[in-house]
Amino acid sequence: MSTSGSRPQPICVDLFCGAGGLSQGLQEAGFRTVFSVDFDKDAITTYRRNHPGVTAVQRDVANVTGGEISEAAGGQEVDLLCGGPSCQGYSTHGKRKEADPRNFHFQHFIRLIREIQPKWTLMENVPGLLTYRGGHFRRVITEAFSSAGYTVSSAVLCAADFGVPQLRRRIFFLGTRTGLPISFPEPTHGANPEGQPRVSLFQSQPLRPYVTVKEAIGDLPLMKGELNREDWEYAAPPSSEFQRYARRHSRHLTLHQANGLSEQSRGVVKFIKQGEGLRAVPVEHLPARFKKMRTISTGDLRRDCTTLYHRPHEERPAYTITCYFRNVASGPFLHPLEDRSLSYREAARLMSFRDNYEFVGHGLPRQIGNAVPPLLARALGRHILQLLSGADITEGMEVSEQAAAV
């Protein structure tokens, strides 16, 4: 894809690229990724399979130089350097070890910014950055961008607001050395507490409804106990815009395998309906480890663990898909209609990967669950392209159906 006139296609570099969700969305927006890096051998294998024209290297980013990135870019100026440094050290799901070396991978992100001087830079991470130690890491990252000569702003975006069938929230740091104002894309989807379409402050038209779990995976076949079967066909023609998006360029269903349940889990999930989780299980039927949960002053069980053993509701977006989606006891990963985990392809759909995106090698749950949802990345990419061109971002916010079908 090229931009209008003789202007060259904007160039992007993707650090900590994983399986390629961020690159995929930016590519659909109009960027050309020229260089990507990740330490994960299997993720890079998947990345190369789906992005054959990109120089993708398996390496610690500490050993990547600005010189080799410039060489991959053919000496052209890099328009966007992006990536999501490892975040386990300050994730709300982790042990929050301040000295965890993964917390400082962003320092190499900053080093490469200094070396190649991209026009814009985008960094993705977990919202836990906002709260841990009063936002200590957020301040450190912001100061690091500033010291490199970049104005930076941050925002927490919900993937469901941009057509992803998942209530995934991530913080994004967007920086520039161009002197242009920084802004973030306005939501295209949403719902008010009554479930009716809501209106953005910057848009005259109502936002489109959130994409639901049923709209996302309703055309995929029920397994009826055949959890490891490989030769599946689609259960029905695509019946939603999202299904048409997901199945474009794909004739065959792949990676539709799931995990079954242990005897203990079967005894738990029989009480759980759509939109419910562990709280719906009578106390006397809770596994022993949950009965040991701390109690509140009345002696009742704590009212947390809201997404453990959770069964997504078909008429709502899913909760966050993590790399543990094969384990129904660890989160909201029960199938809405069957007593099993989500399949690889169902999880990938809920992340907004198209069905022709091939995940290969080992660690597929890690590759899928750690990715940036491509549709969220596409929304960011389109917005950054407007910023690159200096366009008035309050105009032309509506994306045509033709563009949305890219």
Descriptive notes:
This protein has about 400 residues and is of the alpha/beta class. The chain has a domain at about 10-190 and about 370-405: Rossmann fold (3-Layer(aba) Sandwich), CATH 3.40.50. Helices cover about 25% and strands about 10% of the residues. It is built from 13 helices and 7 strands. The chain has helices at about 20-30, 40-50, 65-70, 105-115, 135-145, 215, 240-245, 265-270, 290, 345-350, 365-370, 375-390, 400-405; strands at about 10-15, 30-40, 55-60, 80-85, 120-125, 150-160, 170-175. The chain has a 7-stranded mixed sheet. Helix 1 (about 20-30) links the parallel strand 1 (about 10-15) and strand 2. Helix 3 packs across helix 4. The longest helix is centred in the last third of the chain and has 16 residues, at about 375-390. Residues about 90-100 and about 390-405 have low confidence and may be disordered.
